[in-house]
Amino acid sequence: MFRPDEAAGKPPSIRRLAPVERVGVLGGTFDPVHTAHIVVAVEVRAALALDRVLLVPAGDPWQKRGRVVAPAHDRLALVEAAVDGIEGLEASAVEVEREGASVTADTLEVLAAPGRELALVLGADAVANMHTWRRLDDTRHLATIVVVERDGEHAQPPGAGWRVEHVRIPRLDISSTDVRARLAAGRPIDGLVPPAVVRAIASRDLYTHG
Predict the structure, then answer these.
(1) Conformational region of residue 88, where left means phi above 0, alpha means psi within -120 to 50, and beta covers everything else
(2) Are strands 89-91 and 52-57 parallel, antiparallel or unpaired?
(3) Taken in order 135, 175, 202, 186, is the CA torsion positive or negative?
């Protein structure tokens, strides 16, 4: 095929592809955020060469209504404290600032942008629960599903047509439920949550009443 650049003695022009930003999305109640959440975000970012991972506290987690202890703005502040200074990790207020139930497809639509690929990071237990999600079919084309698996775990999204990655991580037996119980009992949580989160919980007087 004739190209004007060739006739002028110039090398064929090369169309430059726009860079693609690869963003991980790790949602949850984060009530409170703990060290295992941070390990998941760091490990997934490294394993999949993501540009950044957003930790997204649920504003109104409709499947856990009545069981979430701290207000959304406090849980967001704890996540902000947890990721401060960690390269590639960011807190996102997208669900806290939005009214109504926190629905994954809604969040992904807000975060979508030209030149951006989204990777939804889920634990194996969350993947097993996907069949209960609102707008599940809409979620399929919005993001790659990243299944985080510990020893002995394996899960696949329900149905066909999903883009899926699997990332193995170390087993860290830390739960927000246990952290809350320790705080209510006056026991230390150092090491279970980042130091900045320990300070933020104390300054906000969270989880001290059983």
Answers:
(1) left
(2) parallel
(3) positive
Distance CA 171, CA 173 (A): 6
Residues 6 or more apart whose Cβ sits within 8 Å of residue 64: 29, 58
Give the model confidence (pLDDT) of 36-87 as tens digits: 999 999 999 999 999 999 999 998 876 666 678 899 999 999 999 999 999 9
User: What CATH topology corresponds to 20-176+192-204?
Assistant: Rossmann fold (3.40.50)
Say how many Å lie between the first and final Cα of the chain, rounded. Answer: 76
Which residue(s) pair with 90 in the sheet?
A: 54
Strands (DSSP E) contained in 18-107 are 21-28, 52-57, 89-91
Q: What is the pTM of this model?
A: 0.88
Kindly state the tokens that stand for 137: 């079919």
Task: Go through the chain and tell me how many residues it has.
Answer: 210
pLDDT digits (tens, 9 = 90+) for 157-200: 998 999 999 999 988 999 999 999 999 999 999 999 999 999 99
Side chain identity at 153, as an amino acid letter? E
pLDDT for 5? 44
Place of tokens 């209510």: 184
**DSSP-derived secondary structure for 99-163:** -S---HHHHHHHH--TTEEEEEEEEHHHHHTGGG-TTHHHHTTT-EEEEEE-TT-----SSS---
Q: Which residues 6+ apart lie within 8 Å of 47 measured at CB?
A: 167
